[in-house]
Amino acid sequence: MVVAARFLVVALCASALSTLHASAAPAVLSFKDASSDKSALKLVEEALADPSTPISGLHVGVAMERGWWNTARRLVEVCRDRGIDVTGLVHQKASSIRRHLKEIAELLSKPTAMRSIHPAFQWAQSGDAIFLNVKFAHRIDAPATLDCVGDVSMTNTSLHLLAPCEKSGKRFELRLDFLRDIVPDNSTWSVASVGRMTFTLAKSESDDAWPRLLKSRRKPGNMHVWWSMRERYEGEMKNLTSPSSASSGGNASESDSSTRKEDKAQDGAAATGRTKEDVGRPEGQAAAKQQHQEQEEGSQEPALAPSSAPSSPPSPPPSPPPPLPPRDEL
Predict the structure, then answer these.
(1) What is the pTM of this model?
(2) pLDDT tens-digit profile of 210-234?
(3) Strand pairing report for 196-203 and 182-191
């Protein structure tokens, strides 16, 4: 009986001591239940109701990282009043936050994605090769972009040119699907004059005259004839017969002639201010013919027109002097 009473007394004392320690333990500040600056500040105020609640720089750092600025200010005030130095930690977190903000701001000032521009190009051919003259401009007569770096890839049937221009924010891209095969290993390209690239593409079959450059029959607006190079190999190409032209009864030469006439018509239209469509219309052809006649008439010396004024009557001849008297009468 006495032993049981002693055990009961010991148990009651232990329970009282544990209750006393639990009541004396300081509150612990935790942000696990906080979802915003307002809720975090409320937790801080509740924890600070007990002056013994421990506060450290870790709480300040968490509040700053999460953007709880009101909570961070309150914690810094508490740390300063309690003599807790959080200067280094605050400066470190502030520097990290400024770096992230700067990176975000720099994204706004970066140029937008480069837009692709189809560059103008000229082409010609010899019996063994295709010649391309690419100009980094949207028109063949427009100023070229100078800061472009070309990246070329070729297959047996195609060519792909990608030339980004960092300073100007442009990107030129050219994709060509050829009518017939080429040999990429024997083909070359180089940077020509400023803002241009030239290509010499080896044909898979020598002594072959291509009736056109591209697989598609539709002529793109940025493709032109390289006349100086074509005239250089004109004699050689006349001796070659394309299978397509032979089967079509010489349509290749007729197309060649019509292309040259069309280019000359475009040059004339550009000189007179008329468009290609205006030249093709009947009224446009009549106007061009009339203008040509006026230019020819203006270049000739005007003929002297006969005078339409009435001619004046001829003046009478002068009267003869009176005869002298006879000598005897003197």
Answers:
(1) 0.45
(2) 999 999 999 999 999 999 999 999 9
(3) antiparallel
276-302 pLDDT, tens per residue? 444 444 444 555 555 555 555 544 444
